[in-house]
Amino acid sequence: MARLVRDRLPTDDLVRIKKPVWVFGHDGRIREGDRVENAEPAWSYRQGISTLGKLLHAASPGSVVERECRVGRVERSSGAWRIRDESGQEKGEFAKVLVTAPAPQARELVAGSGAEISLAGIDYAPQFSFVLGFCREVEPRRSYHALLNEDRRHAIAWIGFEEDKAGHVPSGQTILVVQMSPDWTMRNMEVDRETLLPEVMRELRSVLPVPDPEWWDSQRWRYALPKKSWDASSLKPLEDDGLFFAGDGQAGKGRIALAIRSGIDVAERMLV
Ligand SMILES: Cc1cc2nc3c(=O)[nH]c(=O)nc-3n(C[C@H](O)[C@H](O)[C@H](O)COP(=O)(O)OP(=O)(O)OC[C@H]3O[C@@H](n4cnc5c(N)ncnc54)[C@H](O)[C@@H]3O)c2cc1C
């Protein structure tokens, strides 16, 4: 991953997140994080992490991206794979297909092909994220970039300071990304976000003394974190027929580097 990001792709917009991740417990007490984990470099891009996908696409001559197209079906007929969009329109016939949607969505796409049996029972935890904007810097003298709930007993799983990623936040301001825990998210997935904000602020203030934000936003991720890895061996017979799967679900952990690693591994098998 380091070779790909630092040596193979353009690095003009690559930014290193220099400060470490510290941890907090269910009582809100903050302490220094794991030194070994923090020794791993953390990266982002000036315009956001979606830059990575754009750079990979630009570095892949011949690749074609079709945006705003929701795939409805991947089906086998006459020895080939056909892809149809949501409206049923055929998008082409292919000898090999790689599906990278999270397992529950991948299962729907390939229903009837036999692949859905191998993908059954693979579950993802949801995550509710809140973004809070402050016109002045919050905690300007802190030694950490983000705080992780280590005992998984707090309603908040992660608090990140976006201004540590160069280019993301105007100078002198703070943007906090507050990721709620999977349990809290499950309880509140369908609740109106305005109703939830006071509780989110209360939970946040049990860790950090923050004022009310000047602005805020939120996002619900239904398939955020794979709970366990896919059984790759059960997918092997499908690979022999040209149907492949990749993504963070194969590693059982939500990390971009692991999703890319799984993509590279599958690509090597597809090219045989
Ligand atoms: C809130 C949050 C914060 C995170 N922060 C970090 C972080 O800081 N660092 C890190 O390393 N990882 C982070 N992760 C994890 C990281 O985002 C994932 O591990 C990674 O994106 C997984 O990549 P993927 O390609 O497997 O799946 P995804 O990124 O989920 O991509 C799957 C794609 O398939 C598309 N799709 C699904 N169904 C269809 C369909 N029918 N037709 C067309 N398209 C379809 C989806 O729209 C999606 O774009 C975070 C995750 C979340 C939820």
Automatic annotation (TrEMBL):
<feature type="domain" description="Amine oxidase">
    <location>
        <begin position="40"/>
        <end position="271"/>
    </location>
</feature>
<dbReference type="Pfam" id="PF01593">
    <property type="entry name" value="Amino_oxidase"/>
</dbReference>
<protein>
    <submittedName>
        <fullName>NAD/FAD-dependent oxidoreductase</fullName>
    </submittedName>
</protein>
<dbReference type="InterPro" id="IPR036188">
    <property type="entry name" value="FAD/NAD-bd_sf"/>
</dbReference>
<dbReference type="InterPro" id="IPR002937">
    <property type="entry name" value="Amino_oxidase"/>
</dbReference>
